[in-house]
Amino acid sequence: MTQIFNFSAGPAVLPKEVLQQAADEMLNWHGSGMSVMEMSHRGPEFISIYEEAVRDLRELLNVPANYKILFLQGGGLAQNAIIPLNMLGNTTQPATIDFVHTGSWSGKSIKEAARYARVNVAASNEAGAFTFVPPQESWKLTPGAAYLHICTNETIDGVEFNFVPEIAPETPIVADMSSHILSRQIDVSRYGVIFAGAQKNIGPAGVTLAIVREDLIGKALPICPSAFDWKLVADADSMYNTPPTYGIYIAGLVFAWLKRQGGVAAMEQRNIAKSELLYAALDADDFYQNRVAKDSRSRMNIPFYLRDESMNEKFLAGARARGLLQLKGHKSVGGMRASIYNAMPIEGVQSLVDYLNEFAGR
Ligand SMILES: *Cc1c(COP(=O)(O)O)cnc(C)c1O
């Protein structure tokens, strides 16, 4: 079989070593005679898996002691409702939530939040076709907003924040980091809530990670479903109801793999090198085009267009023949997209760059 490189935006590539370890342990985890899938979430085996995953993640992201790490379900999209349901209980009604609209995912968050509160779009780059993060000087924030929601990496538009907003300290920042968590160093203490669906940079679909500052817990609206109430979930160590056990196990294997790679700082250096390699090939001449402003370009999700879009199918077929898979862009924006998450080795990016050069006749 030719070597395959999977550029899917998500569910996405996982480290080969992790998949191999999961395969080796599939039928009999550590001599228990059980697959992790068959274990009680309350038994000592699974509890040890869970505790190690939480410990490793806390270490990788340097999560301060006053933040809870929660494993939830419902994906990133459910968070768009779970967050207002958890954060509006103590606010004077009607509450206002500030948003910065930088692309498709923050757009979905705005729509969903509008069911629970007034939303203020403090800044939007819709008119600029979502090609840069509006500079903070241009944001029109609401004094006393319940929180500010941003999507720090827009997976479809390929736009990534390169700064943390400086706002009134009493307003928590909620960040959707689904597609770049663990790809770069972050200062968790600058955020109130960080969330991420697992299927981009953590593990399989079905687990949603939430990192929540403790003082924000316990303020849910009475209509918040119990299974999504941070207080109930945190008090039960993410086992208020049955958690996505196998997904947590794989996420834990990914965290251990990240530690063996040298942690997030080392991954960030690799991600810089990988993304620079790919952008250089796209920028070499006008055969390909990435339309995002240089200082807002994502290191993880790199959309691009062929100058001559009638060659799209030929481009994709040639890529597939070389084992370069899932390069087709999101249907809402067309073109191509290469997602180069932590688990994408530089060899995969080099292979794509070689193909880009060959296809362009360079
Ligand atoms: C994928 C993604 C989501 C949605 O995740 P689901 O698990 O499909 O709900 C939300 N936000 C961002 C930034 C994403 O990349």
TrEMBL record:
The keyword Lipid metabolism does not apply. L-glutamate binds at residue 42. The keyword Cytoplasm applies. Its EC number is 2.6.1.52. Pfam families: Aminotran_5. Binds 1 pyridoxal phosphate per subunit. One of its GO terms (biological process) is L-serine biosynthetic process. Pathway: Amino-acid biosynthesis; L-serine biosynthesis; L-serine from 3-phospho-D-glycerate: step 2/3; Cofactor biosynthesis; pyridoxine 5'-phosphate biosynthesis; pyridoxine 5'-phosphate from D-erythrose 4-phosphate: step 3/5. Its cofactor is pyridoxal 5'-phosphate. Pyridoxal 5'-phosphate binds at residues 105, 155, 176, 199, 241-242. GO terms for molecular function: O-phospho-L-serine:2-oxoglutarate aminotransferase activity; pyridoxal phosphate binding. GO terms for cellular component: cytoplasm. It catalyses: 4-(phosphooxy)-L-threonine + 2-oxoglutarate = (R)-3-hydroxy-2-oxo-4-phosphooxybutanoate + L-glutamate; O-phospho-L-serine + 2-oxoglutarate = 3-phosphooxypyruvate + L-glutamate. InterPro entries: Aminotrans_V_dom, Aminotrans_V_PyrdxlP_BS, Pser_aminoTfrase, PyrdxlP-dep_Trfase, PyrdxlP-dep_Trfase_major, PyrdxlP-dep_Trfase_small. It is found in: Cytoplasm. Residues 4-352 form the Aminotransferase class V domain. Keywords: Amino-acid biosynthesis, Aminotransferase, Cytoplasm, Pyridoxal phosphate, Pyridoxine biosynthesis, Serine biosynthesis, Transferase. The modification N6-(pyridoxal phosphate)lysine is found at residue 200. NCBIfam families: PRK05355.1 (NF003764), serC_1 (TIGR01364). Homodimer. PANTHER family: PHOSPHOSERINE AMINOTRANSFERASE. Catalyzes the reversible conversion of 3-phosphohydroxypyruvate to phosphoserine and of 3-hydroxy-2-oxo-4-phosphonooxybutanoate to phosphohydroxythreonine. Belongs to the class-V pyridoxal-phosphate-dependent aminotransferase family. SerC subfamily. This is Phosphoserine aminotransferase. It comes from Massilia cavernae.
